[in-house]
Amino acid sequence: MTLDSVRAANAGLTGSLRRIADFVLTEPSVAARLTITELAERTGTSQGTVTRFCRACGLKGYAELRVAMAEEVGRSGAQRWSDDIGREIGPDDTTEQVLKVLVATNTQALARTAEQLDLTAVDDVVAKLVAARHCHFFGIGTSGVSADELRRRLQRIAIPCWSSTDVHTGIVAATLADTTDVFVGISSSGQVVETIEVLQTARRAGATTVAITAQPQSPLAEVADLVLATSSQTSIEPAGALADRHAQFLILDILYTRIAQTTHGQTLDLLVSTAEALDSHRVPAPPDRRPRRRKPSSN
């Protein structure tokens, strides 16, 4: 039993009955803890009105409504756990069990991404990034972490690039773009409004637009000239966000490596010089303090 009967009846309710329905559907976790008297007070009605509301929804009485609200809350919590953590991982699973699920999930996400990845599109994106006047990477949330990571890697080999996770910054940069610029939008769902808006703006300005997404038919892909598709859709339903991020990072790895190959001579010099520049910011490795073995006596 859930609140489906309340949802079905809601459109035909008016006045005080509608107020009760709105409260129950909006705050089921709160309403489930209230007595019939308390619910009447919270909604500005009476106990009799609450009873009439229950019958209007096809329920026998308030006790049945409370059961429905409690089950709704439980279902909502279970769905949230499934979406964020995964159905294959329970709250009482051991560390070993969790590790096995995560390894299997991430392995599948990487393998499926490799299987479906359009390698011609990869090389096209690489060529665009190498030739661009400016490269801009945009993402929100964990996709923003991927955008920052790609920018950090490419800056080290002198690819002129920026990243942002703020939509205002992204739109300003996109507005000032031209045909020599490349904008990469990263979003697993392909439905993040801010990322879509940045790519739309960049495309109108004449920039090349690239989408990195797990949904190649998504709104984000529709505003991209080139699409690099990841896959976190595995037979195991795990912590999807984690698998998404590993799949995204595989795309970052291949872009970075192919760009380094394309600009091999320059890249090699830059990697050496930047490593030397950072040496002073690393703690020296401790000397080997293990006792030396004595040479065997010749006697």
Can you put this structure into words, describing what you see?
It is a single chain. By secondary structure, the chain is α/β, with parallel strands linked by helices. It has 2 domains: 4-84, Winged helix-like DNA-binding domain superfamily/Winged helix DNA-binding domain (Arc Repressor Mutant, subunit A); 102-272, 3-Layer(aba) Sandwich (Rossmann fold), CATH 3.40.50.10490. It has helices spanning 4-10, 15-26, 28-31, 36-43, 47-56, 62-84, 95-116, 119-131, 142-156, 167-175, 193-204, 219-222, 240-262, 264-278; strands spanning 134-139, 161-164, 181-186, 208-213, 226-229. A 5-stranded parallel sheet has the order 2-1-3-4-5, with helices on both faces. Strand 1 (134-139), helix 9 (142-156) and strand 2 form a beta-alpha-beta unit. Helix 2 crosses helix 5 and helix 10 (167-175) runs parallel beside helix 11 (193-204).
